[in-house]
Design brief:
Elements: E1 21-23, E2 31-33, E3 48-50, E4 67-71, E5 74-78, E6 85-88, H1 89-106, E7 136-139, E8 147-151, E9 155-158, H2 162-171, H3 174-204, E10 212-213, E11 216-217, H4 220-232
Antiparallel strand pairs: 1-2, 3-4, 4-5, 5-6, 6-9, 7-8, 8-9, 10-11
Length: 233
């Protein structure tokens, strides 16, 4: 628009305010310059289609009408002002499944850098663009360190760059690791439950005197005494 120099990670021109980047990469959902044919983050070919028809929701932060776009095969709505992205429940599920499958097939050696979650001084809950109820703030996959706003009925709101960070987390195997951890926790709880059931069964039995005290085993001497009483019978 004005010919001024612009930073590669700046969404708008610092001189004239023209928009420079949009969520356009169908692979990593990273920011790309308008008109770029390939993503500078992952190298994927740009595949973005504007969807002018239909009704548009309003951005829960800026209160401006969002723009409907088709990123690859995924329908999204993005705010032209704050660069936030609204994805309905089906779109979020599609993004997670597609990236998981791609990572499994390609075996991408993506290394994830842990990012700490900044502590907000004033937490601000925002309304769902569809039902207007306040959304829940959720750590995506419980361990991604990406805090997103979720409406359980309608979808998820991603602030600028959050969708890209989620995709990077998935590609790094974050969801698989979380699932494995949940399985381990479940197995450990089952082991503890079985051990507790065995302990209760032993405490309920009519044991010889000196074997236990309030459900606690008393050591070798008690065991020896119990064996001696048993042999006398």
């Amino acid at each position: 628009m004005c010919g001024a120099a612009a930073s590669s990670d700046s969404p708008r021109c610092e001189h004239c305010g023209a928009r420079l980047a949009t969520v356009a990469c169908p692979s990593c959902f990273g920011m790309m310059f308008v008109g770029a044919k390939f993503c500078s983050h992952c190298g994927a070919r740009a595949d973005r289609t504007e969807v002018p028809d239909g009704t548009h929701e309003f951005c829960p932060r800026c209160r401006v009408e969002m723009e409907s776009v088709l990123i690859g095969k995924t329908p999204l709505e993005e705010c032209p002002r704050c660069e936030g992205v609204w994805a309905d429940a089906d779109s979020v599920r599609q993004i997670c499944q597609d990236q998981e499958q791609q990572a499994a097939v390609l075996g991408m050696p993506t290394s994830q850098t842990a990012q700490s979650v900044g502590i907000e001084e004033h937490i601000h809950y925002i309304p769902c663009p569809v039902c207007k109820d306040l959304m829940n703030r959720v750590n995506f996959a419980h361990c991604s360190n990406v805090i997103v706003n979720v409406c359980s009925r309608h979808g998820t709101w991603f602030d600028k760059d959050e969708l890209q960070r989620v995709v990077e987390f998935i590609r790094a195997g974050g969801i698989e690791k979380e699932r494995a951890r949940e399985v381990e926790d479940l197995e450990e709880r089952q082991r503890q439950a079985r051990a507790s059931a065995v302990a209760d069964a032993w405490s309920a039995r009519d044991l010889p005197a000196g074997w236990s005290d309030g459900g606690r085993r008393l050591g070798i001497s008690a065991v020896a005494g119990a064996i001696e009483q048993f042999l006398r019978k």
